[in-house]
Amino acid sequence: MVESLRLFADRGYAATSVAEIEAAAGLSPGAGGLYRHFRSKEEVLASAIREHIERTSKQINDVLDHATVFEDRPLEIRLRMTCQAGLAKMREEQDLIRVLFRDLDQFPNLVAEMREGIVNPLYDGIATWLSTQPEFAGVDEDWPAIAAILGGAVVNYWLANESMYEPPSHIDEKRFVEGWARLGMGLLRAPVAGTPVEEAPVEGASAT
């Protein structure tokens, strides 16, 4: 499946022949060996996507199961590690992401499977991780929304770097990770929802 997904990513779904998939999989090209396992080229693509979904689901569960291992480290370090893990995940899934942006508009059912099997669980995992950090205990936040912002920043940074061949504003990965972690640290000062915000005095207004 890895070989077929790489071909789809490099050449495009339509331009990749069954014979090329067979050759990449170690089968005799054009001999029809692929059809002993799959009914069509689309089924090969679907199987590759589902393989990634299964692996990602296991990774998320493993991370959450072992989240307490690093709680003795400062929060900023844990945030940096989380950001670095997110960028590493994007690199790991780069072939799948290329196929998604190039070809998956032809297969809305597979897009839905990716959304529900990879994308949403990843954002849910970030929200769960943030909400369970000891330093955020008692912080009343919309964690899914925060996860969408922080996770989206990782996705945007990687995509910009990948598609435009350099990071936004020439910000290298080290600076991005440090900035991302500082943004996360700002949650420690987040006001409790419903707390009235003191209005700044209007210049020139007289006290009554």
UniProtKB/TrEMBL annotation:
Superkingdom of this protein's organism: Bacteria
Phylogenetic placement of the source organism: Bacteria, Bacillati, Actinomycetota, Actinomycetes, Streptosporangiales
Entry keyword annotation includes DNA-binding: yes
Protein keywords: DNA-binding
MF terms (GO), sorted A to Z: DNA-binding transcription factor activity; transcription cis-regulatory region binding
Protein name: Helix-turn-helix transcriptional regulator
HTH tetR-type domain mapped to chain residues: 1-56
The keyword DNA-binding is annotated on this UniProt entry: yes
Organism field: Actinomadura syzygii
Known DNA-binding region: 19-38
InterPro entries attached to this UniProt entry: Homeodomain-like_sf (IPR009057), HTH-type_TetR-like_transc_reg (IPR050109), HTH_TetR (IPR001647)
